[in-house]
Amino acid sequence: MKPQKRVCAVHDISCFGKCSLTVALPILSAAGVETSVIPTAVLSTHTGGFTGYTYRDLTEDIPAIGAHWKTLNLHFDSLYTGFLGSFEQLELVARLIDDFKSGDTLVLVDPVMADNGSLYKVFSSDFPKGMAKLCGKADVIVPNITEAALLTGLEYREGPHTTGYIEALLRGLGKLVTGKVVLTGVCMEDNALGCAAYDPQTGKIDYILSPRVAGIYHGTGDIFASALLGALLNGFALSQAARVAVDFTVSSILRTKEAGTDVRFGVNFEYGIPTYVKALGLI
What we know:
single chain; alpha/beta; UDP-N-acetylmuramoyl-L-alanine:D-glutamate ligase; two-stranded antiparallel ribbon; about 40% helix; about 25% strand; kinase; EC 2.7.1.35; PM/HMP-P_kinase-1
């Protein structure tokens, strides 16, 4: 049996509402990947559509966790970052990458900071500059259209998107990283939505699209990025991994829509895990 891969996931924990670590852990585990975590904050719920939620910042714990891990000589096949709530956390995670990245470590940065044309209210207007610096340490980045516009300084446009606009975003993002880009929220037609996978070294762009499902579904970005990483760590090429992640995410949304579940609660990805595992060739 091949050696088990190990990932360090640096995300917040929402105790209710499926997103961040509560989706990254089960999805990566289903992919056969040992998943260690560094929680950046604990919230009673995520912030999308809920009010009155609790929030405990765990920034002070990050250096101590990293220092202890260094004494154990741990090796990670991947370092995976999601929502980071401050410039201080950006700097601490950059140090973690420096401390634990080796020649075969895949660094995936999901620059969670904006959506639907707007920066999240918790961030100052200069936060994208700090996130762009962290993206420079990544092998793969997974921004949505809004985040891509903020990272590149280009105009945000709602879909349907033109090929020229998407490729301008991709080229701009390619200048931030030495690795690859998966741009999510790509809408080339009114009824098709998905992602574009870009390799700046070769210039190759692959569009991976599926029928669009109307509505806003919380946590789907985290589900997509986690499913993508699970596929990459199982040896899939970038475009193949993106197809697996798109299919898994879309099926989770459809399942939730059909059930009529409150969209604030997250999508039903759990029922799709057997199909995901099968797509990875693990069963």
